[in-house]
Amino acid sequence: MLRRRLAPYLLVLPGGLWLLLFFVVPMVTMLSLSLQQGDVVTGYVFTGHWQTYVDAVVNYRTQLVRSLIYGGITTVVLIVLAFPVAYWIAFYGGRRKATYLFLLLLPFFVSFVLRTISWRQILTDEGILLGPLKDAGLLHQEFHVLGTPVAVIGGLVYNFLPFMVLPVYVALERIDPRVVEAARDLYADPATTFRKVIFPLALPGVFAGVLMTFVPASSDYVNSAVLGSSSTTMIGQVIQSQYLTSSNYPTASALSFTLMAVLLIGVFAYARALGTEDVMKVAAR
Amino acid sequence: MTGRRMLYAYTWLVIAWLTLPVLIMIAFGFNDTPGRYNQSWDGFTLKWYGRVFELDELTRALVTSLAVATVTMLVAGALGTGIGYALGRYRFRGSGTVNLVMFAAISSPELVMGASLLTLFVSLGVGPGVVTITIAHVMFCISFVAVVVRARVLTLDRSLEEAAADLGANPWTTFWRVTFPIILPAVSSGMLLAFALSIDDFVVTNFTAGTTTTFPLWIWGSTRVGLPPQVNVMGTLIFLVGVAIAVTTSIRSRPARRR
User: Which residues form the ABC transmembrane type-1 domain (chain A) (predicted)?
Assistant: First the structure.
């Protein structure tokens, strides 16, 4: 009897310990390091120096705000782009639903970094896209896409699109077709049916998609580094170089903790309001 | 009906847009480029497929990636299955906390997970390398495996286990002869997911690697100088193997689902 009651704990223990040691503890270490002073050579002492946060946020506010704006724009563009795709697959995909979802996930079999670099190859000034257009005189010779916010946001949208399509699809797929029929029977025109019935029922999926795209998009540094320029620097690049190039650990920790706090407040508000099931369900796919 | 047709066309347009960079990557693996600068099309060749392992550092990076992904798959597979099974099968105190931690691990920015692991390793004085990369990969893969396994365990028909018990099987035998074969497809797809997440990971790896190089890190490091065609060839081969595994597993799991 005792063994049966202990069984779940024994099963959870190894993985739970791993998550505790390498996910929870590091977060605490990072918080503590952000409040310490010193340098790599002489070591760090905990001083509760909150000023690091103030300095870090003031110094890098441009990049922080820019990241949230890029992340926000990316998310909005994703909702608009992904909804029709999810809608078509959910309602008209028929027996080929799984095939369409598979095709949407196809790029994921290529490394994230490699895919982004591939976009740079496509978008270079004399590349396969802009080259012919310039030669034909359709574009000004000076016209370029790389290095602009458009390229960075385009890359983010490209890389995170499936994370929006999947949760919206899951939500739409759950809608009982009879509910839609009922709306039609009650003389709702297609637009009203969509606005009053389908969209509200798809909202949990949209929220899950927002969560799954806004967080990685605003903390991303690969797209901005590969497709952007110094005028598109995002907070991820700052954190990365503070850690790996300048070894300025307190500032870097303060910045990542600020980013984490801003994003996680959103995440936990989401979890409290809507539960964790929708995100877990998509992760399980 | 025209609306429906427009949606159809639009969906295919999005799929084409998603696939375009993949096709470019594959195509440039066949590019007869004279040097390392694989930017413009210089004619078709198969020579890079013969010379794919010519760059020692790149080959070593790929081997490191494969080794890390294999260990991650096995360890995260075992640990994640434990959690997923417990969450799906038992009601116990603390299961809410486990769920919340997993949810946080799935939705935390990778950047912050990598950065916080780096601070841990720095303050412990642990030198980064293959071991720290693997520790990190197992960490972010456990939750995904657990979620996949839990979903399957929740749909498990308990009467099968009861039947086994009625026929005199002890819990151990029941688990290995009845329960495990049923949840095996979920365990293996969770493990494949872990392998895929690990071999593709850049952000967390970048923070925990030190001077060790994995396949994505090598690519990142040579973006400024230009990517050699060998990278395209390796990318193409990984892509084809991944697609082949995904297609065969989905075909193999189909008859089971119909029943």
Answer: 64-270
